[in-house]
Every structure is written in structure tokens, then in C-alpha cells.
Amino acid sequence: MAVMTGNENTVKQATTIGNVEEQMVNKKVVYDTKDLNLWYGNDHALKNINLQVHENEVTAIIGPSGCGKSTFIKTLNRMVELIPVVKISGDIQYRGKSILDKSYKVEELRTHVGMVFQKPNPFPKSIYENIVYGPKIHGIRNKKILDEIVEKSLRGAAIWDEVKDRLHENAYGLSGGQQQRLCIARCLAVEPDVILMDEPTSALDPISTLKVEELMQELKKDFSIIIVTHNMQQAARISDKTAFFLNGEVVEYSDTNKIFSTPSDKRTEDYITGRFG
Amino acid sequence: MKHVDTALVKKRMGSRLFINNLGKTLFLLATLFGLVVLVVLIYRVFSQSIGWIDIDFLMNKLSTDPNRAGIQGAVAGTLWLMLVVAPVTMLLGVGTAIYLEEYAQKGRIQSFIQTNITNLAGVPSIVFGLLGLTLFVRGLNLGSIILAGGLTMALLVLPVVVVASQEAIRAVPQFLREASYGMGATKWQTIKNVVLPAAIPGILTGLILALSRAIGETAPLVVIGIPALIIPIPDSVFDKFTVMPMQIYYWTIDSALVSEYANLAAATIVILLLILFLMNSIAIVIRNKFQRRF
User: Fold this and answer.
1) Residue A187: in which H helix or E strand, if any?
2) How far apart are CA A270 and CA A176, in angstroms?
3) Which ranges does the record mark as transmembrane (chain B) (predicted)?
4) Which CATH code is given to the segment(s) B56-290?
5) What is the domain partition of chain B in residue ranges?
6) Which residues of chain B are at the A interface, by a Cβ-Cβ cutoff of 8 Å?
């Protein structure tokens, strides 16, 4: 198969590009994966992933269904471990520390690295209770501080004006788009460093999608965002860097502008021009 | 060329429709049989108990004189028994369910435990009675007191509570757990704050259904030696006791000697059925009230 040949070369090439970027941009590295491999049982889902994610950027991960992009993002906060048959080799460094190390507590990692999921998943509780869930888990009990966190988080997720008068109503009364922004607010309440987003707008209508995208541009000033998306226009609109995944490998990783204008790999070009996937 | 022969289809149509209707009739009869038996049973019990149920019947103590006999002791005994069974089954049952669903590694040991719990639900109640006799009455030397009876009953209904709680916990959508883990919650924090609140209605329903089974069971209590004689109303779990089904049992046996005892038994059955009906209604109300769609 033509697609399969020369994969090693491409990976090396992509890695080199990543390194060049780093020297050029000179932004701090948040995530650095080294020869990351992941298996679900016998299924080799991630193959030799070498990626560097930088601070205060939106990094988009694109690729066809089943290419491992969701698996990759879930590996970054070790959520993938909820599946019992997962095996991982290689290394993931977050801020210079290996998160696959036994001594790295997964609860601590997930405090630094928040996650927004594909489907809005608020708790069946009030809006207020949803936001304070994280802070309470980390031991904040003071009502005044919690109130402050709620306002700050909801403002941060650009939903404060819509819900400020009904903080104590059930979150399930909100629309899908509002629920997703609530989930982003809930994530902000823990004051993370990185926000992982797994196709956050795939269940939303175009207007809600636009709002979430605008929000991401605001958020990247304070956070580093890694987003998986099916929507290539979305990746082109919102991201600074784009990684193209195919069959568990990174085919190309580079500036979003470059990927969408002059991709260096034929397969990337085929994918972004809609020839497959 | 066509494969379906129109003439043959027409010829066979009559017999096909006949068998179709025959099936319908047979299955309807099968359903009616159960229904008729139930109606006859209820009719007999109610007609026998008419005139025997009044406030005195509920409040009087046991007596050999049918006109003065009451079921206060039996009702009190049943309530005391529930006071032991409910907390014990809840702690053990819900605890087991949480362990199996949230903590246990899916594997051979887990499925071995699971199979055994499911099989345990099918073990005859008299076997649990023997277990209670060996373990609590003789082993711990408790004698046939409420605590021993309650623990025996708790063991009997435990599998029901475990299985019902497991189903309730499994029905909590995974995305809620993910949301909690995603913010750095530990497993226990996730269970306490997300899983249990969402699973409580199902757990309570299972618990109430298990309790209503415990109320009706007789065999284990016969085995552990609940007395038939007139005894004082129990006032702690260390007292001897009797329960409503036991009362029904002894009155039915003795109705050969005093025919009015049959009426007393029927009256007790009506009260027992009312309590069971009430408990099942509560279970249904809880289920409907807390039913959430995610």
C-alpha cells in the first residue's frame, strides 16, 4: 500500500520540523512526547509519537476517525487509563516531568490539565454546584471564595451574563452550547495550565460552535489549549499549530498556516483537500 | 420464473391462520390461569378475614382465645427484624456493589464472585436458615433472638441488594465519571459525589424490594427456632420474637383445633399483604420521582 510506505521517514521529518519550530518560536514547551506508543490489547493505536506543545498556543489535532487523535489527547491527562487493557511505552513530559512515572499522581496531573469532552457532560446538579465541584474536591470550603470562583470561571467561559440569575437551577435546563461553555467554566474553576478539548463543538450548532471558538481565542492568552477536531475549517480558524494524525502516526506537525497552504506530505494534502477521511 | 407458488400459498393460508389463532388462545389461557388463582386466593383470604380485622386485633397481644388474640407481638417483631436487616444489607450490599463495579479489576476473580452472588440469590431460603442456625444461633451463641434472625435474613436478601445496586451503579453514565476524574478527583470522591447520588434511586428500590422479601420469609426463622408461644413484646435486638408470617404459620397449623384460628391467619395475611403493597408502592414512587435522563 502506497500510504504505508515511508512512514518512518515522515515521522522523522515531522520531528525535525517540530524542533525547528521550537528554536524559531522560542516559546516554553508544555508537553513533550518521546517515542510514545500505545496499545489497546493487540491494537497498536499510537505509533512513535514525537510532539512538542507550546505555551499559550492552540494546538489542533486533525485526522480521520480512528486515527488515534482522541486516544492521544486522553493520554496527555492519563484518562486513557480508564480503559483496562491499555499499554503505553515511551515518555510524555509535562513541564519537564514524566507523567508516566509511577510517582506522578494522576490526580495532580488532572488538576493542572483540564479536559472538555465531546458531549457536554455537566453533572445533574445546579450550575453553581457544577462549577464548585472541582474547587471543593481540592479542599476549598469557604463560601466567599467559592462564589468568587464561580463568577470568575463563568465570566472566563463567556457564559456569566446568560446564567448569573439562575445559578441555582439545574444545569440540564441549559442549551447544548451553554452546557458546553459551562463545562469549560467548570474546567477553568480548577485553574488549570492546559486545557484538553476532545471535539468540543461536534455536538453543537454553528452559532454555539462560533461562541466556543471565540472563547478559545480568549482562553489561549492564559492557557495552552490542545484540541482534537474533525472540522478542518475549525482547525484552520483557531489553531496556531496543527498535527495531522493517520493510522496512529503523526504524518505532519507544523504551523497551521503551513499545513493548510503548503503541506509537505502528500497524505496531508489529500486529507485537507477532502480527498479522503 | 417465480419461486413462490401462489396456489400453494392460498392452500396453506387456512392452516397457517388456524395455528396462529391457536397460539394466541393458548397463551391467553396460560395468563388467565395465574390471574384466576390470584383472584381466588385474595377472595378467600379477604372473605375469611372479614370481621376479624380491627384496632384490637392490631393492638392486642397473642392469646389462645381467638376473640382476644392480636398480632401486636408479631408486628413489633417484624419491625424489629427490619431494623436489623435494613442497615446490615445496605452497608454490606451497597459496599459489595461499589467494590465490584468501581474497584474490582475485570477478570476471572471478579466474574467468579459475580457468578456466585447471582447463584446465591437462587439458594433456597431454608439453607440460609441452617446457615443462620449454625453461625449466629449456635456459633455466636446468640440464641433465637432478633439479632440472629435479622442477620440471617440479611444474608438471605443480600444478593438481591447487591445485584440491584450493581445495576444502578452501572447505569450511571461513564461521562459523568470522566468529568469528575478530569478535574483531578480521586475514585472515592467520584463515587461519593457523582456515582452514588445518581445511583441512589435504584439502590433504594432494590433495598425496599429486598426488605419486602425479608418480611414475607418464614422458612429461615422456623429453622433458627422462633417460638410459637405467647411471648412478651420485644424491646431490644437481644429479645426473643415472632414475626407475622410465623404467626400465620402457627395459626394455620392449629386451626384444626380451633377453627377461628383460620380467620386470624387470614386477617394477618391481609395486614401482611397491605404492608408489602405499601412498601412496593414506595419503591415505585421513589423510582419514578428520581428517574433522570442523562
Assistant:
1) helix A176-188
2) 33
3) 71-100, 112-136, 142-164, 194-215, 264-286
4) 1.10.3720.10
5) 6-49, 56-290
6) 105-106, 173-186, 189, 193-194, 198, 292, 294
